[in-house]
Write a structure and sequence with these properties.
Number of strands: 9
Shape: elongated
Strand content: 15-25%
Order of helices and strands: HEHEHEEEEHEEEHHHHH
Mean pLDDT: 82
Oligomer: single chain
Structural class: alpha/beta
Distance between the termini: 14 Å
Largest sheet: 4 strands, mixed
Number of domains: 2
Number of helices: 9
Length: about 290
C-alpha cells in the first residue's frame, strides 16, 4: 500500500490530543502596538493613542535628560492626558462627614503632561526593541512556496515586520511577519503553509464551502482552520522540516478549534480530506483520493 501522509498526520494529531497537549503559543514575536511608554513599555490609553497618533516610544523631557539625550531642534511635544482624583472639603450638609466633622466629596480633574516621540530625540536608544533571530531560509520549503506563487499569478505574498499572519480574501493576499521574528525557521514555514492553504479555498482554486463567508469563531471558520493547520502540518512534513515543537504547536492549535466544535475529533478526518486537496493544489499534483481510484 502507498504511504498516506494525510492519514498518518491525522492519526498523530489525534494521538497528541488524546494524551493531552500544551496550549498553543504564537510562534513569532510581535512589535509594540501603537504608542507606548518609554518608561514602562505599556501602551497608552485609547484616548492618548488617538492624541499621540504615531506608534513607538514616548518620553517626558525629564526622561530624555535622565537618559543622557536631548530633544531635536524644532521638535514639538505631544499631550498625554489622565484623570486625577482628590477629596474636596465641602460645607454642604447634604454631603457625608468624615470622622473630623468635615464634609468631603471626590472630585476628578483632567490633567496632562507633555511627551516626545523617540524619533524626536537624540542620544536615546529605544528600550523595547523587538528581538530578531538569524533564521535562514530552507530551500525545500522555499521551492514549494515559489512554485505555487509562480503558478498563481493573482495571489500576492508579502512578509513585513508585523504582528499578524493572515490571508485576505478580498485582496487575494497572504501577509506574514518576517522570518526573523519567528522562534525558528521551521515555525515560520509552518505559518506560511497555513496561510497558503487558506488561499486555496478561493473560488478560482479549490473553492471550499467552509471558506466562504465565515465569521471568526463560528463553525465554518473553525472547520477551515482545521483544514489549514492539517495542510500546513502535511506540507511541513513533505518539505522535510518538521520539528517536534512545530508539530506539537500544530496539534495545540488544532485542539483550540476542536474545543469550539464540541470536541468532535472526527472532524479532523473530514478536514484531512480537504487538506489533501489543498496540499496537492499547492504542489501541483493529484489528490490522494484520485491516486487511489486511478
Amino acid at each position: 500500500m502507498k504511504f498516506d501522509i494525510y492519514k498518518t498526520i491525522t492519526e498523530r494529531i489525534i494521538s497528541q490530543l488524546e494524551r493531552g497537549i500544551i496550549p498553543w503559543r504564537k510562534p513569532w514575536s510581535g512589535t509594540p502596538n501603537g504608542p507606548i511608554s518609554y518608561a514602562t513599555g505599556k501602551p497608552y490609553s485609547l484616548l492618548n493613542q488617538m492624541l499621540l497618533g504615531k506608534a513607538g516610544e514616548y518620553l517626558t523631557y525629564n526622561q530624555i535628560q535622565e537618559a543622557g539625550g536631548r530633544v531635536k531642534k524644532g521638535s514639538k511635544a505631544k499631550m498625554v492626558v489622565f484623570w486625577k482624583t482628590y477629596n474636596k472639603t465641602n460645607d454642604s450638609p447634604e454631603d457625608d462627614s468624615d470622622n473630623n466633622g468635615e464634609n468631603k466629596k471626590t472630585v476628578m480633574l483632567l490633567r496632562y503632561y507633555n511627551v516626545f516621540h523617540i524619533d524626536d530625540c537624540e542620544g536615546v536608544e529605544a528600550k523595547h526593541k523587538m528581538v530578531l533571530k538569524p533564521n535562514n531560509p530552507i530551500q525545500t520549503a522555499e521551492d514549494i512556496i515559489n512554485n505555487y506563487l509562480n503558478r498563481e499569478k493573482g495571489l500576492k505574498f508579502e512578509t513585513v515586520i508585523s504582528n499578524k499572519a493572515c490571508y485576505n480574501t478580498a485582496l487575494d493576499k497572504v501577509s506574514l511577519p518576517k522570518i526573523e521574528q519567528f522562534n525558528s525557521a521551521e515555525e515560520y514555514y509552518s505559518t506560511v503553509f497555513h496561510e497558503l492553504i487558506h488561499s486555496t479555498g478561493h473560488v478560482n482554486r479549490c473553492n471550499r464551502e467552509d471558506f466562504k463567508g465565515n465569521i471568526f469563531g463560528d463553525e465554518k471558520y473553525s472547520k477551515e482552520e482545521l483544514v489549514a493547520e492539517i495542510g500546513a502540518a502535511a506540507l511541513t512534513n513533505i518539505a522535510g522540516i518538521e520539528s517536534n515543537s512545530s508539530f506539537k504547536n500544530s496539534a495545540a492549535y488544532i485542539n483550540s478549534w476542536i474545543e469550539g466544535l464540541k470536541n468532535d475529533k472526527r472532524l479532523i478526518v473530514t478536514a484531512s480530506s480537504k487538506a489533501d486537496k489543498a496540499v496537492c493544489y499547492i504542489l501541483g499534483t493529484e489528490t490522494e483520493t484520485k491516486r487511489k481510484t486511478a
